[in-house]
């Protein structure tokens, strides 16, 4: 079944990148000349997604403004003969059919996904975490959608991480299926060293069947009064199995200061307007490190 819908949870407070996120949503922090969330929406669109729901919260209306038309700005660009920039600005509004819903209380990623139940209906859907920008030639969302269409089961994007990182993320119990795909039969969130299944962790992307909503509604709230999506996916993995895709692409954690810096440097080096001059600048800086 073709995946047509995607959900982008973007309601978090961004406490790890304060004070930058005090008045500006972390999803709107710029990577060279585009906000982080635009890269995520572009990835979904390149993957064949037609309808996107962005889960927001109080103070995030700039996200909605970014994907809306701006008649005054558009007119000024046209009057100034800046047709290329005009087209770029207008095309942002045509990436997909984007709608919004507010998560009134930040009660965890699982609670945010429950807010999308009416939007999703009875069909599978992709989830692209708002903190994670993943860049590459082959969009990661599309890689996961292909796996769902082949196996008909929930799919998660996974990568190997360090022992230190796995204890902050989630650990997958898996067996290889060939190429870059695995069967997942169990998982654990933030494992203790003796609880680690493997060093493969979910990083930023998944495709889920509509049954996940029923599971979420019957999953107890955990630490800090939050409903964890990983707990619901664990039930799904144990009952019917899931597929893990060791995806192609470079992930940037836009919820961390270091992740933002890494994204800016690497995108800046490949950007047609900044690449050459920025490379020269960095070589000069590197000599003094």
UniProtKB/TrEMBL annotation:
GO terms for biological process: UDP-alpha-D-glucose metabolic process. The keyword Nucleotidyltransferase applies. Its EC number is 2.7.7.9. One of its GO terms (molecular function) is UTP:glucose-1-phosphate uridylyltransferase activity. The keyword Transferase applies. Pfam families: NTP_transferase (PF00483). Coiled coil: none annotated. Residues 5-264 form the Nucleotidyl transferase domain. This is UTP--glucose-1-phosphate uridylyltransferase. The gene is galU.
